[in-house]
Amino acid sequence: MIQIKNLQYKINGKIILEDIFLELADGEFAAIIGPNGAGKSTLIKLILGLLELKEGSILIDGVEHYNWLKNNTIGYLPQYEDFDNAFPATALDIVLMGLAGKLPLGAHFNKNHKQKAMTALEQTGVTHLAKELIGKLSGGEFQRVLLARALVSESKYLILDEPEASLDRPSVDSFFVLLKELNSEGKTIITISHDLTTLSKYCSFLVCLNRRLHCHNHTELIDADVIHKTFGDSLRIIEKDY
Amino acid sequence: MFSFSFLVYAFLGALLSGISLAVFAPFVTLRRISYLGEALSHIAFAGIAIAILTGLNLTVITLIFVMLIALGITLLAKRHNIQESNTITIFLSLSMALGIILISISKNYSFDLSSYLFGNVLLVTKSEVISLVVLSILNIAFVCFFYKELFYLTYNPVMAKVYRIRTDLVNLIFMLLLAANIVINVKSAGIILVTAQLILPAVIAFNFVHQLSKAILISILVAIFSAFIGFYFSFQLNLPTGACIVVFEAILYFISLLCPDG
């Protein structure tokens, strides 16, 4: 379970997030929606410990999140993974990254680790790309490799930042089908998305965020007023879906 | 006997200098911090000036000074979230300014800027050859042992943190070793060759292979080959050794561009 209490976050005095109280039970498939600049990515970076939490608290499984993260990993798919296209890494190398933190300092990967990585690639349907250089993969293929990396870490939590950003329409659907399968196998998933059509099909819990939380409830309880407060001018798109 | 040992030391100096820097070159190139090598060698200038002014051992003082600055760059970039390139430029400017002030204070000393820029492999002593052997072994051992951490640190340090890969300590050792490499190599190789050796062998290697471990190996082989050829022509034509090595590596680089993957 992830519990966020009284979280505030400012950058140079500007409030990015305020009064955030949120509880996500294990096994949820939660979506965070909100306009650009709503603080969605900031919130997940705070959960991941990539940004320093100054006010409020984040508890994961009842433990203060910095302490939890010392011994555990959250599988994370960033919106864009920053890397040099010419970097000499194969898809398999990238998946193995999900296991690297579990190995002692200086230890090398063995056959068992590589087998685990191959199994994760199989789960995401891209085993055939294991030996391909990452610079040669399409956006969709690379997303699946990154998902395999998140899976191989065996974390019970999976956080995704706009996974549909580099996928075409059919790939978005098949990607979310895969996420739904993982969710039904017990993974707790949090995804940021703008694709409300897809979210309404697959997610069970919607978090509407625009600096503050406007709602955090199961999808069927969300009404147009709440979404209007969250999105403002983007309402037209939302009315189509809800 | 004198001329023989002096030539052997000069050759070993050029060879080991190439090997020690070539081990780090693929990481420096991929992390796009090749300017760091140049900056640290300029930062060494202030260390040299301090050693001259205080009359203490030049190598030891410069080594301590450059390592402290490398530590400062790493910590400042981490703690204050400043881009490493900006921090490096700040320290580079400060060290050069400090170096010039200190050199001007020690009026009796005539500083040979040319040897600082281009080095003089012919002045390499036995103890410096031993330092270079130790340094090369340390570099190879460090890269072999921490290969996994260095690989992911180079790929993406933020995601390395997400997946709990302990890159902080490895990055710190990397920076300190890089600083040591630069200080110890500047005397024999000079700033120009040090900078070239931190880039050229690796970019040549990446034109042939797309695997980091193989690129490190080829980078070392390029450095060894260049040391032999550069030293041979320098000896035959009575030309500066460091400059001959750089020119030969540059030629190799242009040839490597003809490779299908180049």
Structure write-up:
- The complex is a heterodimer of chains A (242) and B (262).
- Chain A has helices spanning 40-47, 65-71, 91-100, 111-123, 139-152, 169-184, 196-202, 224-231, 235-241; strands spanning 2-11, 14-24, 29-33, 55-60, 63-64, 75-77, 157-161, 188-192, 205-210, 212-218.
- Chain A is an alpha/beta fold and 242 residues long.
- In chain A, the strands form two sheets. Chain A has a six-stranded mixed β-sheet with strand order 6-7-8-3-9-10, sandwiched between helices. In chain A, strands 2-1-4-5 form a four-stranded antiparallel β-sheet.
- In chain A, strand 9 and strand 10 form a beta hairpin.
- The two termini of chain A are 28 Å apart.
- Chain B is mostly helical and 262 residues long.
- Chain B has a single domain (2-256), classed as Orthogonal Bundle (ABC transporter involved in vitamin B12 uptake, BtuC).
- In chain B, 82% of the residues lie in helices and 0% in strands.
- Chain B contains twelve helices and no strands.
- Chain B has helices at residues 2-30, 34-54, 58-79, 84-105, 113-118, 126-145, 147-155, 157-162, 167-197, 200-206, 212-237, 241-256.
- In chain B, helix 1 (2-30) packs across helix 9 (167-197), helix 6 (126-145) crosses helix 9 and helix 9 packs across helix 12.
- Chain B is globular, with a radius of gyration of 18 Å.
- The N and C termini of chain B lie far apart (45 Å).
- The chains are: A alpha/beta (242), B mainly alpha (262).
- The interface between A and B is medium-sized, with 33 and 29 residues.
Which helices and strands, and how do they pair?
The complex is a heterodimer of chains A (242) and B (262).
Chain A: E1 2-11, E2 14-24, E3 29-33, H1 40-47, E4 55-60, E5 63-64, H2 65-71, E6 75-77, H3 91-100, H4 111-123, H5 139-152, E7 157-161, H6 169-184, E8 188-192, H7 196-202, E9 205-210, E10 212-218, H8 224-231, H9 235-241
Parallel strand pairs in A: 3-8, 3-9, 6-7, 7-8
Antiparallel strand pairs in A: 1-2, 1-4, 4-5, 9-10
Helix pairs in contact in A: 3-4, 3-5, 4-5
Chain B: H1 2-30, H2 34-54, H3 58-79, H4 84-105, H5 113-118, H6 126-145, H7 147-155, H8 157-162, H9 167-197, H10 200-206, H11 212-237, H12 241-256
Helix pairs in contact in B: 1-6, 1-9, 1-10, 1-11, 2-3, 2-4, 2-9, 3-4, 3-9, 6-9, 9-12, 10-11, 10-12, 11-12
